Structure formats: C-alpha cells, structure tokens
Amino acid sequence: MLMIRLQRIGKKKQAHFRVVLTEHTKKPQGQYQELLGTYNPHAKDFKANRERVEYWMSKGAQISPTVNNLMVNHKVWDRPKMQSWKPKKKQEEVKK
Predict the structure, then answer these.
(1) Which domains, ranges and CATH numbers included, belong to the chain?
(2) Cβ pair 20, 11 in contact under 8 A
(3) Distance between CA 48 and CA 34 in Å, rounded?
(4) Are 59 and 82 in contact (CB under 8 A)?
(5) ∠ at Cα 5 (34, 71), nearest 5°?
(6) What is the pLDDT of residues 45-62, one digit of tens each?
(7) CA distance linking residue 16 with residue 22, whole number of Å
(8) If you compute the radius of gyration of the chain from its CA atoms, what whole number of angstroms results?
(9) Total-model pTM
C-alpha cells in the first residue's frame, strides 16, 4: 500500500520535512517514489503539490494524519482533520 507521509531531513535540531509518496513497509528515511512537497516547521512554511496528492489518493494511496492536518491548517484543501495521536492511558484507568 502506498502512503503519503513526512520524511525528516536536515541537521540535528534544525528539522525540515519532505512530503513523499512511499510504500508503507519501507523505512521513513529510505527511498521514496515521488516528492510531493516540503515543510519547514521553524518558519511554518508548507508547500505541497495538491494535484499530485489528489492523483495518488485517487490511485489508492493513503495519507498520514499529520500530512492531512498540515494541508488543512495551511488551507491547501478543505477536508476534516484526522486525529494524529492517541492520549496515554493513566495508571488508574489501566488497573480497572
């Protein structure tokens, strides 16, 4: 299954990210099939090729919740946000 997700690049404490299309079983830092955009969290700069993202999604690729939420926040498209993390369970809830 193809996945559209972030790939971390940049030096230590100076993270930059690529938005890439890759097989979901491959390592995140490994090879990718297509570069779809970039994200600089320090400057809050997000660029993505919307047409190519929609093309690959029409072909069956899944988008990660983080990339989807970035595209919604930066007004690249109008879709609902996804939950990208799960809160930790407290010790008391685990015991019950």
Answers:
(1) 2-82 (3.30.1320.10)
(2) no
(3) 12
(4) no
(5) 100
(6) 999 999 999 999 999 999
(7) 18
(8) 15
(9) 0.83
